[in-house]
Design goal:
Layout (H helix, E strand, L loop, with lengths): L1 H20 L13 H12 L17 H15 L4 H12 L12 H35 L5 H21 L1
Helix pairs in contact: 2-3
Length: 168
């Protein structure tokens, strides 16, 4: 009886794991008969992101929503819509996050502005570091003295040593 139960459990386990071993079936959008529409559709798909996935372009994603979006793109292109109109349609439907490239105005300008500010900050820090290193090097080496300066200092030292003896 235990052998029969273990065989039954093994069979159930294999049945439970079998769907995981099969490759996923990906839904495909049939290509348009017009090559111009297909080329435009691919360009538009690269400009849009999947509304469900994080930063995954529409031309790569295979979710049901993306397959529907690809179908709608081809239908609208066949109906005569321009690529900008199609992108605007999806932007109105899913929000601005569906665009692969954000508008560079309003709040998004702040997002792009921090990059320039960061570069400027690094450049200013590098310039300050170089100037302070040069200044430290100049202070450490002391003032430049010439042979004439050395001779004058030697004479001053010699005069200073002779004067106290003359007083005594």
């Amino acid at each position: 009886m235990t052998r029969r139960m273990s065989s039954l459990l093994l069979a159930l386990a294999l049945l439970a794991v079998a769907p995981l071993a099969a490759p996923p079936a990906s839904a495909q959008v049939p290509p348009s008969s017009d090559p111009r529409i297909e080329a435009q559709a691919l360009v538009i798909e690269k400009q849009l992101l999947c509304p469900l996935c994080t930063n995954e372009r529409l031309d790569i994603c295979g979710t049901v929503v993306c397959v529907d979006m690809k179908r709608i793109i081809r239908e609208q292109l066949a109906a005569g819509a321009t690529p900008d109109e199609i992108i605007f349609y999806f932007e109105q439907r899913y929000g601005e996050r569906v665009r692969a490239d954000l508008h560079r105005d309003g709040f998004n300008l702040i997002l792009f502005g921090w990059v320039g500010a960061s570069v400027l900050l690094v450049a200013a820090g590098g310039a300050w570091f170089l100037l302070s290193a040069r200044r430290t090097k100049a202070l450490a080496s002391g003032p430049n003295s010439t042979g004439v300066d050395e001779a004058w200092l030697d004479a001053q030292i010699a005069d200073g040593e002779e004067k106290p003896e003359a007083r005594a």
